Amino acid sequence: MELINNLNWRYAVKQFDPSKKVSNEDIELIKEAIRLSPSSFGLQPYKVFIIENEALKEKLKPAAWGQAQITDASHLFVFCSYQDLKEIHVDELFELKSKAYNKDISELESYVSFIKGSVAKKLPEIRRVWNSRQAYIGLSNLVNACAELKIDACPMEGFDPNAVGELLDLDSKGLDAVVLAAVGYRSSEDKNQHFPKVRKSKETLFESI
Ligand SMILES: Cc1cc2nc3c(=O)[nH]c(=O)nc-3n(C[C@H](O)[C@H](O)[C@H](O)COP(=O)(O)O)c2cc1C
Known about the structure:
Elements: H1 2-9, H2 24-35, E1 46-51, H3 54-60, H4 69-72, E2 75-82, H5 87-101, H6 109-121, H7 124-149, E3 152-156, H8 161-167, E4 175-184, H9 202-205
Antiparallel strand pairs: 1-2, 2-4, 3-4
Helix pairs in contact: 2-7, 5-6
The structure holds flavin mononucleotide (FMN).
């Protein structure tokens, strides 16, 4: 299966080749893979900033433990989730749904109420975590799309969300920085590309019950 070959090919790149840039066409494909990611109720409660600007990447690097991937990679994807989920976000989804299904919003009203009720039942801090989880599904599709395109990526949680939030003015946008993905091409010098995959065995990870 091609996906398994791709997953064996990829690894979390530590050293990118700063001279190699990902084409706009490929960036559009990666964006589409993220856009098509599933999310709970389809709410997609996150936004992704894509940073190519070298000066901004330099500013972000200290906030990401000085990791070289931030500046060496071609593009930096910053996955940011909504700090809260409000009725307006559910309404926005249903505007899209009513257009896609060519149905009047009133026909979808009972589903709208069900989702609004289910969202309201959660404590605000639970909603915040719930939103961030959805962003990880987008990250996963980024990783898989990159592997298929033979583009390298490094998912990154090694950063200070508050410092990144300040640099990107996320609070005023009601967003939390959740996870980063450096995207580009591996350097031939990166030793990590020769390391074997380390994963739990299927017996440990799965259990048929
Ligand atoms: C959510 C997440 C956060 C990660 N954060 C970092 C990071 O900050 N820096 C880094 O070099 N690698 C990071 N990694 C890469 C992991 O260390 C790597 O995926 C794991 O060791 C498995 O190795 P492989 O991806 O090379 O197969 C992260 C991976 C994930 C999924």
